[in-house]
Amino acid sequence: MFDKLTDKDAMEFIAKVEALFKDLPHLPKGIPAFLVKIAPWVALLEIILSLIAGPVIALVSVLSLITLNPLLVISTVVMAIITLVNAVLLLKAFGPLQKQEMVGWIYLFWVNMLSIVSGVLSLFGGNPTSIFGMVLGAVIGLYVLFEMKPLYKGAGIIEGEVVKEKK
User: Fold this and answer.
1) What's the whole-model pTM score?
2) Residue 155 reports pLDDT greater than 80
């Protein structure tokens, strides 16, 4: 399953998204370096919070059955699943992020994509006011992520070969 996140198609998708940010001004060099240093610890904190939030959201989904609103039930179940998948991706990213390996950065990219999916789903879950925050958060998150990318070892696709996680 995780191999799909680092295969050639995934790397090409990441490159297309990155192209949208390539002409933007760069952050001062010290900021991305600092973010790369704290990224594993922020990921660890988010893992812990996700492992707490996932079951709580699942409980809310069970309680939402009382409302007899199927859209609410479905959206909370999906949010619980996304939260737990997010935790798993961050757990996979933790070790490589400590070593500043590109595969850790790639997992962070997919965590960001999950956040965007979650935001879009929240629109269908009856929260249309979140569209501005979702778009702004996605743009800022991707911008910062692409500013950090050059500091990770590896380059995604090197001569047609995809970066693989070291075992």
Assistant:
1) 0.82
2) no
